[in-house]
């Protein structure tokens, strides 16, 4: 059980940890995805912008070498005319109008014959630039383009060349040099990070000056040699940039340059052998991801804490209610225990009282019986006395035959008295709880005999219906007689003011039960006690003549015999009582029953 609870607890904690860590992580990934997706669009826009400004800048000067090459003054000079001074002025003016850095003309040997910077100390005039690829391209009859560092002042620039023809013959080359550093300055001021690489991966333009002339990868020896031969980047060491490339979320390119991390987007510039790369510091991405993830974590954490707090509070409330409930149940239990104790004591006391009352009831009946017996015996005793006196007279007179007759009468009187005392004996016999099988007819007859005197005194008639064969039940016969005597006495009490007083008794056997029916033609059961007649101490009799226990004791006796006891009023007049008792199971022949004792 304990292990189960621990496992459940651990699982819950794990679920919470997953929830608290997983959702912010998921949100972080979504934020990154959204950001990278946004970067794709945004970097494209930026690349469009920077590419078009660069191209526009170069395009602006594209026509310039052509115009110079077309000028008659230039071709004349290249034909040998002595007009270099004029051409210098022309180039100076053209350069100034066009806004280019410098324009100049080379002869077919690659020697600068005229230049817009002819006035300057480090003028190009006289320089041998035959090694420059733009010269060689133009000499092959096509436009040349080249980016490199100048040989005089070491200023980098973009060179555009055009062949100069005269009568269809190639006589020289016109060149315009454009310095692109103002563009870089604009990028730098804009806070943007971008660079442009040439065909070898050498950074030729960069918003960060320290990246300029660094390579994206180490250059091979032949490449280095060709660059050296063209004097493309003299005095410059072409070191590779410490750059590392990775892919994020499967589509975004991430580069690490030194210790800085960037998202990168590159594209080659159409019509050139250059590639432009736009970079965005990753810091922004991490700041945003971390910010949103942390906010999510804090909100979720607060939610979880609130939930914990509320649950804790609810559990405390439940525990408090349970404790109160337990207290209440404990006190109820205690009360119940006390009540049970009380009931047990009361029951015990009632049992004792009942025992006493049974005994007392019996004694009262005995008292009444004693009076009845005295009455019964007085008359025969007086008769015996009279007969004895008569016998003595008869003996004196020798009337022996008469003496004998009288003695027979005396003997009969003795028998009668014997019967009375016999009945007394049987009633007084100490009742035991031992149950016997007995004949109900005998119990009825016995109790009627005991009540005979009262019936007579009260002038009450008796109607008796008994069966011919015995009706045996199991129980205590003396108790049964007590029930019947109580019924007869109650009926006689009720009949006190009835002229034609009648008590009826019948005994029948219906199915497996003995049915005793006792009725009278008195006033009937009083409505005030009707429903409670079997309860103890319910009486309508005046004080001293009844305590209201007879029927309740009788009821218990019948119940002890597994019987039923009912009381009701008769439709016309009087009360009636029904006692139903299960019959005794038939005994084997030869077995002796209590009934047999009584019949003897
Ligand atoms: P007690 O005889 O001491 O009153 P019982 O329990 O024997 O106690 O009887 C209870 C009451 O039942 C009597 O007081 C009486 O009101 C009523 N009762 C019993 N038998 C009869 C009857 N045959 N007719 C009318 N009332 C009766």
Protein described:
- It is rod-shaped, with a radius of gyration of 71 Å.
- By secondary structure, the chain is an alpha+beta fold.
- Among the domains are: 63-179, Beta-Lactamase, CATH 3.30.450; 377-427; 430-597, Heat Shock Protein 90.
- It starts with a helix and ends with a helix.
- The longest helix has 114 residues, at 283-396.
- It is built from 12 helices and 18 strands.
- The strands form 4 sheets. The chain has a 6-stranded antiparallel β-sheet with strand order 7-6-11-10-9-8. It has a 5-stranded antiparallel β-sheet with strand order 2-1-5-4-3, sandwiched between helices. Strands 13-15-16-18-17 form a 5-stranded mixed β-sheet.
- Adenosine-5'-diphosphate binds at residues 486, 490-491, 494, 520, 522, 524-526, 529, 533, 538-541, 546-552, 575.
User: How many β strands by DSSP?
Assistant: 18
State the strand order across the main sheet: 7-6-11-10-9-8
Class by helix and strand content? Answer: alpha+beta
SSE pattern: HHHEEHEEEHEEHEEEEHHEHEEHEEHEEH
Overall helicity: 40-55%
Tell me briefly what this model is:
By secondary structure, this protein is an alpha+beta fold. 52% of the residues lie in helices and 20% in strands. Among the domains are: 63-179, Beta-Lactamase; 377-427; 430-597, Heat Shock Protein 90.
């Amino acid at each position: 059980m304990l292990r189960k609870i621990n496992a459940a607890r651990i699982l819950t904690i794990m679920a919470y940890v997953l929830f608290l860590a997983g959702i912010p992580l998921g949100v972080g990934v979504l934020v990154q995805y959204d950001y990278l997706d946004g970067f794709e669009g945004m970097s494209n826009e930026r690349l469009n912008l920077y590419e078009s400004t660069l191209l526009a800048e170069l395009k602006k000067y594209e026509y310039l070498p052509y115009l110079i090459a077309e000028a008659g003054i230039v071709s004349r000079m290249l034909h040998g005319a002595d007009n270099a001074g004029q051409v210098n002025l022309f180039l100076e003016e053209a350069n100034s109008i066009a806004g280019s850095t410098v324009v100049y003309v080379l002869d077919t040997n690659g020697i600068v014959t005229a230049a817009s910077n002819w006035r300057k100390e480090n003028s190009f005039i006289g320089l041998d630039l035959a090694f420059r690829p733009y010269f060689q391209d133009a000499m092959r009859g096509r436009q040349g383009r080249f980016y490199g560092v100048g040989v005089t002042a070491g200023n980098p620039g973009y060179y555009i060349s055009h062949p100069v023809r005269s009568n269809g013959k190639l006589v020289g080359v016109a060149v315009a040099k454009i310095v692109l550093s103002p563009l870089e300055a604009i990028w730098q001021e804009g806070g943007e990070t971008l660079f442009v690489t040439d065909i070898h991966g050498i950074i030729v333009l960069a918003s960060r000056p320290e990246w300029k002339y660094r390579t994206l990868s180490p250059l091979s020896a032949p490449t280095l040699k060709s660059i050296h031969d063209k004097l493309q980047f003299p005095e410059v060491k072409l070191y590779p940039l410490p750059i590392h490339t990775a892919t994020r979320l499967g589509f975004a390119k991430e580069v690490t340059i030194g210790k800085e991390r960037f998202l990168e987007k590159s594209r080659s510039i159409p019509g050139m052998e250059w590639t432009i790369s736009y970079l965005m510091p990753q810091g922004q991405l991490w700041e945003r991801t971390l910010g949103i993830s942390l906010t999510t974590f804090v909100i979720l954490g607060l939610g979880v804490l609130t939930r914990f707090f509320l649950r804790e509070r609810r559990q405390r409330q439940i525990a408090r209610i349970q404790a109160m409930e337990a207290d209440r149940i404990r006190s109820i239990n205690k009360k119940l225990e006390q009540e049970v104790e009380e009931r047990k004591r009361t029951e015990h006391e009632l049992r004792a009282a009942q025992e006493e009352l049974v005994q007392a009831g019996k004694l009262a009946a005995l008292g009444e019986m004693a009076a009845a017996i005295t009455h019964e015996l007085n008359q025969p005793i007086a008769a015996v006395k009279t007969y004895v006196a008569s016998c003595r007279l008869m003996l004196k007179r020798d009337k022996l035959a008469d003496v004998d007759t009288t003695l027979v009468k005396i003997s009969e009187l003795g028998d009668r008295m014997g019967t009375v005392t016999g009945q007394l004996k049987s009633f007084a016999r100490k009742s035991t709880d031992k149950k016997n099988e007995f004949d109900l007819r005998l119990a009825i007859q016995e109790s009627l005999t005991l009540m005979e005197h009262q019936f007579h005194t009260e002038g009450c008639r008796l109607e008796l219906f008994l069966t011919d064969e015995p009706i045996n039940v199991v129980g205590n016969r003396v108790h049964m007689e007590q029930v019947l005597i109580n019924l007869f006495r109650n009926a006689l009490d009720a009949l006190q003011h009835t002229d034609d007083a009648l008590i009826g008794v019948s005994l029948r056997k219906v199915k497996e039960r003995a049915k005793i029916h006792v009725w009278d033609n008195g006033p009937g059961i009083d409505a005030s006690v009707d429903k409670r007649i079997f309860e103890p101490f319910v009486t309508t009799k005046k004080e001293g003549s009844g305590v209201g226990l007879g029927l309740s004791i009788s009821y218990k006796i019948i119940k002890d015999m597994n019987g039923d006891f009912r009381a009701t009023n008769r439709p016309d007049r009087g009360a009636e009582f029904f006692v139903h008792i299960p019959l005794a199971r038939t005994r084997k022949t030869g077995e002796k029953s209590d009934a047999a004792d009584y019949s003897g």
